[in-house]
Write a structure and sequence with these properties.
Elements lengths: L2 H42 L6 H29 L2
Helix pairs in contact: 1-2
């Protein structure tokens, strides 16, 4: 088999592997998103809040907590210098 035939065969294999991987990845991500959305709807969303609104609120709350934590750590370090 010539080198160009090997290259072509490898390219076809590569395309099939990447295409199959992408299908698996899309399925896994899609399934995770569905489960995550159902969890948020059932346990974290407040009355009348959509899934997207709940996700946004949770993200904002998390960012606020992270900033507060950083501020406390920085204050603590300043106190001991």
């Amino acid at each position: 088999m010539s080198k160009s035939k090997l290259v072509n065969a490898n390219q076809k294999i590569e395309e099939k592997v990447v295409k199959t991987y992408k299908k698996i990845e899309d399925g896994a991500v899609g399934s995770f998103t569905k489960i995550s959305d159902k969890f948020i709807d059932k346990y974290l969303a407040k009355n009348g809040e959509t899934t997207d609104e709940a996700k946004k609120r949770i993200q904002e709350e998390q960012e606020k907590l992270e900033h507060e934590k950083e501020d406390l750590i920085n204050k603590h370090h300043k106190d001991y210098k």
